[in-house]
Specification:
Blueprint: H1 7-13, H2 15-20, H3 29-39, E1 42-46, E2 51-53, E3 61-67, E4 70-75, E5 81-87, E6 92-93, H4 95-98, E7 108-111, E8 115-121, H5 122-126, H6 136-161, H7 166-181, E9 185-187, H8 192-199, H9 203-215, E10 219-222, E11 225-228
Antiparallel strand pairs: 1-8, 2-7, 3-6, 3-8, 4-5, 4-7, 9-11, 10-11
Helix pairs in contact: 6-7
Length: about 230
């Protein structure tokens, strides 16, 4: 855990991640130093495959990924694992849960690779402090905007898993990703096992469908790189 007396190390070592974090949009560096002090920001490191947040714990903190990659996952009663989202440095994790009064987190967040994470008690953001910090209203605005963007991003997952077949889910995911990237050639953040967990399909069945689409000339793929070669019909 990082104490505030070491805040300069956060700003120095993770300035790029903090600068792109939507929570700190239009907040300058001088105010950011004061903000971390006011908010009681904490920093923790996690090893690969270690849980950053566990299902069942109280979701009290706004979580910012400073380095590494993490996945938000859900495991059902039968042990089936589904990847809900992947987060990179500078992104907020499970921010919507921190702003509720839920007693238990319904998902887990797992480090895909070694991660450094900042935790900020959400109540410190939502309630202005006695110091009357000028940046606080901007911070609340940024948090509300991040909540809206988080809600919108979840529509992609819903749209994908609403499809009935593995082929439909895969092609829908690739089409939506191409639109986001603005290109028919792009890299995805998942390996084959992770992609199957995200699409919520059988892993071997996914490999079969990818092979068919490549043979049909619809897509090209090499590991995490995909290219959509021609229009297709779901």
């Amino acid at each position: 855990m990082l104490k505030f007396q070491q805040k300069e190390k956060i700003l120095k070592n993770f300035s790029n991640s903090l600068s792109v974090c939507p929570l700190f949009t239009e907040i300058n560096t001088a105010d950011l130093e004061k903000m971390l002090n006011c908010l009681g920001a904490r920093r923790l490191g996690f090893d690969k495959k270690e849980e950053i947040m566990s299902e069942g714990m109280p979701p009290r903190d706004v979580v910012i990924l400073l380095s590494g990659r993490a996945q938000t996952v859900r495991v059902d009663y039968m042990g089936n694992r589904s990847i809900l989202s992947e987060s990179a440095a500078g992104e907020l994790i499970c921010v919507e849960y921190a702003c509720t009064e839920m007693r238990e987190l319904p998902v887990s967040v797992v480090a895909v690779e070694p991660c450094v994470v900042m935790f900020i008690d959400c109540s410190h953001i939502l309630h202005t402090c006695h110091n009357g910090c000028g940046f606080h209203h901007r911070l609340i605005y940024n948090l509300m905007k991040s909540l809206a963007e988080s809600s919108i991003s979840k529509h992609k997952k819903i749209e994908v898993t609403a499809k009935r077949t593995t082929r439909e889910r895969l092609l829908t995911y690739l089409a939506l990703t191409a639109k986001e990237k603005g290109s028919n050639a792009f890299d995805i953040p998942f390996n084959r096992v992770e992609l199957a967990d995200y699409l919520e399909v059988d892993r071997s069945g996914l490999s079969v469908e990818i092979g068919k689409l490549v043979k049909e000339g619809v897509i090209f793929c090499r590991k995490e790189h995909f290219e959509i070669l021609k229009p297709y019909i779901l």
